Every structure is written in C-alpha cells, then in structure tokens.
Amino acid sequence: MLKSGIGLLIGIIGGCLFPANIIADFTKIFSVILLTASNTFFGGLKAASIGKFDDALFVSGFISNTFLALLLVYAGDCFGTDFYYAIFPVFGYGIFKNFADLRKNLMKAN
Length: 110
Fold this sequence. Notes:
mainly alpha
C-alpha cells in the first residue's frame, strides 16, 4: 500500500516538474488511463482499509482494466463510434463506490 502511494506521489511531482503536451488524437486514451488508474488506486485503498490488500491483485487489476478500456476505445475508433463514453460511467461509478466504501471503513475504524 505504501509503495502505491509513494508511486502516485512521485508521478504527481514528476508531472508537475516535467509537464507534457498531449496530442489531441490521444486525449481519449489518456482520459481512459486516468480513469482506470484512479479506479484501481481507490480500490487498493479500500482493500487496504479492510486489511485485504494484495499487490498481485492490485497490479493485475490495473493492467487488465486498462487493457480492456483501451481495447474498447480502439474498437470504437475502428467502428467510428465513441465507446469511451460508456467507459466513463462504469469507472466513474467504481471510483465513487470505492471512495465511499473507504470513507465508511475509515469512519468505522475511529
């Protein structure tokens, strides 16, 4: 858990110190990656708050969720539709659900 938090902090600091310009063609992909990373991060925090955090599950969840979401974005681009709009509610719901569960678990602990 501490490793993922340190990695997130290093990524945020690195992003602030070395800003990158994202090509307009890749904005869909980066938004999906940001959503999947946030969903996985809050899911990891929730699992850690109840004592069930597993590094392998965390990494495999991030990789598989990101791959599936990117596959949907690519398929949508091939078919000329915007499948990434369907990704936002799914991962957005997961983020808020994980955050709400994390908050409940932390409030029960105190």
